[in-house]
Design goal:
eight-stranded mixed beta sheet; 24% helix; two-stranded antiparallel sheet; 6 helices; alpha+beta; Aminopeptidase
């Protein structure tokens, strides 16, 4: 598969509609210079056009001039169809190097974190990477005090391979995984539990949202006794101690599902067992 400027979509569209869209060169240069008055909301959210991302856009602007072939690989807008503006950015740092290594990166707007956007973006990036024959290794570099991002990367099977010093971010831990191993790890992730707890949760209380959704949680069998709740760059893992397999007619209760209002919802087999109880929507 050849890298193009087409949107990168989540490998399982029934689980997530999140996509990664190319940021046009003119927009990258405008964001780098701070001249964003003429940009539409689909490119220039307050976060992406703010000082937190300015250094990123300056680096990418220079990269587009120096290495045009990197254009379809680098930082893309993280787009949730239910939100009127980008929720963050994600992409690779460039095309594969001589050894077949690509590095991933991602950022989520502070007020939209804890909704699983980073996890969905990493899933998408791994899907893209494993479709490229010249990609052998996927890398991520993370600050040792960025605990959510460390947890996220480790959950995909990335292995620590060293350290480096970044002029902007300081000390970073280097994590790597082979593209073939990334394929296996991504396929084994518990998509079922993440669906309603992240993607539906992302439709709650977001400024500029096109509609509101009520969250009803259905925990899936595949996730075992755990449920995934979206985090800044990771996912919180919430234990469900009362959950048992369907054959025991158990029930999944979690005080943090939705927004943590203590509602008791979610049968472990989506209503098949006779012991199912229903509570209020979160």
């Amino acid at each position: 598969m050849t890298i193009t400027s087409e949107p990168w979509k989540h490998p399982r569209p029934e689980q997530s509609q999140l996509r990664l869209d190319v940021v046009p060169a003119r927009v990258v240069h405008a964001l780098a210079s701070g001249e964003t008055a003429s940009l539409g909301v689909e490119y220039a959210s307050s976060y992406l056009a703010g000082t937190d991302c300015r250094a990123l856009w300056r680096m990418r602007s220079k990269q587009l001039i120096d290495t045009p072939r990197d254009a379809p690989w680098i930082t893309r807008s993280m787009v949730d169809p239910l939100v009127a503006f980008p929720v963050g950015v994600a992409g690779f740092h460039g095309a594969p190097d001589e050894a077949g290594m690509v590095e991933i990166g991602y950022r989520v707007a502070p007020d939209l974190r804890r909704r699983g956007y980073a996890r969905r973006s990493v899933e998408t990036l791994l899907h893209v990477a494993r479709g490229q024959l010249d990609v052998k290794t996927v890398r991520a570099t993370i600050s040792p005090d960025n605990l959510p991002s460390l947890a996220l990367i480790r959950s995909f099977g990335f292995v620590e391979s060293g350290e480096q010093w970044d002029e902007e971010d300081g000390l970073e831990i280097i994590f790597e995984i082979s593209s073939s191993e990334a394929h296996l790890r991504c396929d084994l992730l518990p998509f079922g539990s993440a669906q309603s707890l992240t993607d539906r949760a992302s439709a709650r209380d977001i400024p500029g949202h096109r509609r509101r959704m009520r969250l009803r949680v259905h925990a899936s069998h595949a996730a075992g006794n755990r449920a995934m709740v979206g985090d800044e760059n990771s996912d919180d893992v919430v234990d469900l101690p009362d959950r048992q397999p369907c054959r025991s007619r158990g029930e999944a209760w979690c005080r943090r599902l939705g927004r943590g209002d203590g509602s008791k919802e979610a049968c472990c087999c989506n209503g098949e067992c006779r012991n199912r109880k229903r509570g209020s929507d979160a």
